[in-house]
Each structure stands twice: as structure tokens, then as C-alpha cells.
Amino acid sequence: MVQLVEVEDEHFQSAQPGPEEDDADFTDTDSEISEDSDYDPSQETLAERLYALKDIIPPTTRGWIGARFDTGARAVQNTWFYGSRTVWVVCTAALMIGVPLATCWAEDQQIEGMEREYRMREMGSELLTAGEDQKEGNTADMLNQAIGGKTEARPSL
């Protein structure tokens, strides 16, 4: 019959190097809380403090916030891109259509003013010679008839 015997390895029988059996005095020297650290919180910037807070927010929430931020950034970017092109098209069209139109309108106004001045000069010469052609009549009445009878003569102030 076969008999099983447990054989222990020498490696497990010897004590391991490391802290003593009394773990109460054990301190972690790599900890940021240790008193011999040269960390000065007054030298820390706001950006560094906010970056350190990222571990408080779970990764799924950070991913959700990042996705929303990227979506908003893309929306602003597209709005800026298409908005600037729209403004360019509108301004160019206004310059190409509006400037010649304004020039033509100004020329028409100038021509109408010249025609009005010419008619006034003709009426003035008719008024000066009105006494020779008609026997009776007032100069103001003749002026009123020449204009069309719609206005009344008013004294100037």
C-alpha cells in the first residue's frame, strides 16, 4: 500500500526579511502624508488642484461629461465655420449689388433735382413775363396754377 507523506520546503520554514512581528510601528515612508515631505500646497496652482480632483469623479461620469463637452465644442466650431461663411457671402453680395444700386439711386436723385431746378427756372421766367400776357391776375395765383393748385402761398419766416 502507498503511504503519502507531506514534505515541507526549506524556503517556507525560514523567516522572511521585512518588518518585525510588531506591525504597530510600521510607517509608510512613500506616503504623501508623511511629515518629512517637501510638498508646499501654497505653490500649487488652481489648474493642478482641479486636475487632482479628477479621481473623485468616476470614469463613466468623466466619459459622459467629456462626450457632452466634445459635442458642445463641435457645435460651436460648426456654428463659427458656417456663420463666418454666411457673413462673407452676405457682405460680398451686399457690396456687389448694393454699391451699384446706391450709385444708380444717387444719380437718379441728382437728375430729378436737376429737372426740378430746370422747371423752377422755367416757372420763374414765366412769372417774370406773366404781366405782359395776361390782363388780370396775381403772381401767387399763377404760381399756384403752375404747380398744380395743391399748395398755398405762405409767407416766409
UniProtKB/TrEMBL annotation:
<feature type="compositionally biased region" description="Acidic residues">
    <location>
        <begin position="19"/>
        <end position="41"/>
    </location>
</feature>
<keyword id="KW-0496">Mitochondrion</keyword>
<keyword id="KW-0811">Translocation</keyword>
<keyword id="KW-1000">Mitochondrion outer membrane</keyword>
<dbReference type="GO" id="GO:0006886">
    <property type="term" value="P:intracellular protein transport"/>
</dbReference>
<keyword id="KW-1133">Transmembrane helix</keyword>
<keyword id="KW-0813">Transport</keyword>
<keyword id="KW-0812">Transmembrane</keyword>
<keyword id="KW-0472">Membrane</keyword>
<dbReference type="GO" id="GO:0005741">
    <property type="term" value="C:mitochondrial outer membrane"/>
</dbReference>
<dbReference type="InterPro" id="IPR005683">
    <property type="entry name" value="Tom22"/>
</dbReference>
<keyword id="KW-0653">Protein transport</keyword>
<comment type="similarity">
    <text>Belongs to the Tom22 family.</text>
</comment>
<keyword id="KW-0675">Receptor</keyword>
<protein>
    <submittedName>
        <fullName>Mitochondrial import translocase, subunit Tom22</fullName>
    </submittedName>
</protein>
<feature type="region of interest" description="Disordered">
    <location>
        <begin position="1"/>
        <end position="41"/>
    </location>
</feature>
<feature type="region of interest" description="Disordered">
    <location>
        <begin position="130"/>
        <end position="157"/>
    </location>
</feature>
<dbReference type="Pfam" id="PF04281">
    <property type="entry name" value="Tom22"/>
</dbReference>
